[in-house]
Amino acid sequence: MTRGPSPKPNAVRRNVHEHAQELTPEAQPGRSLPTALGVKTGGARRFWKTWSTAPQTATWVETDWAELEITTKLVDEFFKGDTKLAGEIRQRVAKWGATVEDRNRLRMKIEESNESPGEGTPADPQNEDTVTDEELFKFLSQN
Length: 143
Description:
Helix content: 40-55%
Strand order of the largest sheet: 1-2
Number of helices: 5
Mean pLDDT: 81
Number of strands: 2
Low-confidence stretches: 118-123
Order of helices and strands: EHHHHEH
Distance between the termini: 59 Å
Largest sheet: 2 strands, parallel
Structural class: mainly alpha
Strand content: under 5%
Shape: elongated
């Protein structure tokens, strides 16, 4: 036996937030990393590439891109060894919806993709990610 009245057949949620966003899972065209930033580490280049093509960037304006530039400089310094910047970086990326929890708090929803996780383009063995992984391993081994 259930408690309370049975739900109406076509109930409508009335508590949908007016600023909720539904994003498509496709990667955005992104922007190229500005050379004026002087980014030296592969980790920071990978960070820029990841965020500049993220679904969230579909709605970004110039001030958001400026924040990404500043945060990329912080990530560059982090990969050079300044681990005190980790908290600041985490706070900044949370405002963009970096994790599932962050996106829930921001009322962001990314549509489900029809593609299986294993599908897509095959990985390039000469990919920059390999360099970044080696760089990260060296960085973590120092501490």
